[in-house]
């Protein structure tokens, strides 16, 4: 199976052939996946070199001319390093585009903390009007990328990862999916966390919602699940900073007595990098750790 990032290059290259309004802007990373597209569309596949602020600035400039720019690099270089440009060149200018990141929270541990971005979605959450997609499978990444490319002038962030679920789900870029139903409470599994959550909650009487579009947050789905349960207790399992969606969940349930437990990546930097499985275990996000934390929250 191809990775989400490989699927992105394939799909974006095809979209360039079909839609003359689209342009892809790169900052050296990911160029090899667009060699053929660059030959076909040299004026719409641009590599600005290792200049991430320029990457975003060029994307904003293309959007001002009426183009639909797709920007791509690692999340730490796409969101964190040029955040001022994201805020001003898209938000302040009132234009849209598609930011597609790779690397996630710790996809490449050997790259060190410079190539990790567990706070990217929380940082994007400080800005107004951004849709945020977090696919959990390459097929979902393709569906959400196509949705983002066709989304008029909307501002969209697509977070790709090497971590994937075994099977794809029918995502629509809007709603949470109900994967399992129960009475003790609700667990929201974001993107690539779904398989671990399903394993962790096997035999527990809980509802599992699957979220691949986290902004806007599907408060209606959470309210419906909480209303059908015996208690409005919610666990959020996110592949980025712990508690990123806690405020959104609290707002959705503001008229209902509730408890929310956020599980995700802690703020402490892990300096023994290991591999992705080691990071999941160290963060308490492997299935065994999730089992204990979720069951404990719901009373065993």
Structure explained in plain terms:
The structure is a single chain. α2 (35-40) links the parallel β1 (22-26) and β2. The chain is globular, with a radius of gyration of 19 Å. The protein has 12 helices and 12 strands. It is an alpha/beta fold and 300 residues long. It has a 7-stranded mixed β-sheet, sandwiched between helices. Strands 7-9-8-11-12 form a 5-stranded mixed β-sheet, with helices on both faces. It folds into 2 domains: 4-159, Thiamin diphosphate (ThDP)-binding fold, Pyr/PP domains (Rossmann fold, 3-Layer(aba) Sandwich); 177-297, Rossmann fold (3-Layer(aba) Sandwich).
> Into which percentage range does the β-strand content fall?
15-25%
What overall geometry do the principal axes of the alpha carbons give?
A: globular
Task: Report the helical percentage.
Answer: 25-40%
Strand numbers in spatial order across the main sheet: 2-1-3-4-6-5-10
Averaged pLDDT: 96
Structural class determined from secondary elements = alpha/beta
| Main pleated-sheet profile | 7 strands, mixed
Instruction: Give me the Rg, rounded.
Output: 19 Å
Helix and strand element order: HEHEHEHHEHEHEEEHEEHEHEHH
Domain Transketolase-like pyrimidine-binding: 2-168
InterPro entries: PDH/Transketolase, THDP-binding, Transketo_C/PFOR_II, Transketolase-like_Pyr-bd
Pfam families: Transket_pyr (PF02779)
Protein name: Transketolase family protein
Question: Tags for this entry?
Answer:
300 residues, alpha/beta, Rossmann fold, 2 domains, 7-stranded mixed β-sheet, 12 helices, 36% helix, Transketolase family protein, THDP-binding, Transketolase-like_Pyr-bd, Transketo_C/PFOR_II
């Amino acid at each position: 199976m191809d990775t989400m990032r490989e699927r992105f290059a394939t799909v974006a290259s095809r979209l360039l052939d079909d839609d003359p309004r689209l342009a892809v802007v790169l900052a050296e990373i990911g160029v090899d996946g667009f060699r053929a597209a660059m030959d076909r569309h040299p004026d719409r596949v641009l590599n600005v070199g290792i200049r991430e602020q320029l990457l975003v600035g060029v994307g904003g400039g293309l959007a001002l001319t009426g183009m639909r720019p797709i920007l791509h690099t690692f999340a730490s270089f796409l969101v964190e390093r040029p955040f001022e440009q994201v805020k001003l060149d898209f938000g302040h200018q009132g234009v849209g585009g598609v930011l597609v990141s790779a690397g996630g929270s710790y996809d490449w541990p050997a790259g060190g903390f410079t190539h990790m971005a567990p706070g990217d979605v929380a940082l994007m959450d400080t800005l107004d009007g951004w849709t945020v997609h977090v696919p959990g499978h390459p097929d979902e990444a393709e569906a959400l990328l196509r949705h983002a490319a066709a989304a008029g002038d909307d501002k969209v962030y697509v977070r790709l990862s090497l971590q994937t679920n075994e099977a794809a789900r029918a995502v629509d870029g809007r709603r949470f999916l109900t994967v399992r139903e129960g009475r003790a409470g609700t667990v929201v599994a974001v993107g690539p966390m779904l398989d671990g959550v399903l394993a962790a909650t096997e035999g527990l009487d809980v509802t599992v919602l699957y979220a691949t579009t986290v902004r806007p947050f599907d408060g209606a789905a959470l309210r419906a699940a909480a209303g059908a349960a015996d208690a409005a207790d919610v666990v959020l399992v996110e592949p980025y900073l712990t508690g990123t969606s806690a405020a959104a969940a609290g707002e959705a349930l503001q008229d209902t007595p509730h408890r929310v437990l956020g599980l995700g990546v802690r703020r402490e930097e892990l300096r023994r990098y290991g591999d992705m499985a080691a990071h999941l275990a160290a963060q308490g996000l492997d299935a065994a750790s999730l089992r204990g934390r979720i069951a404990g929250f719901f009373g065993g």
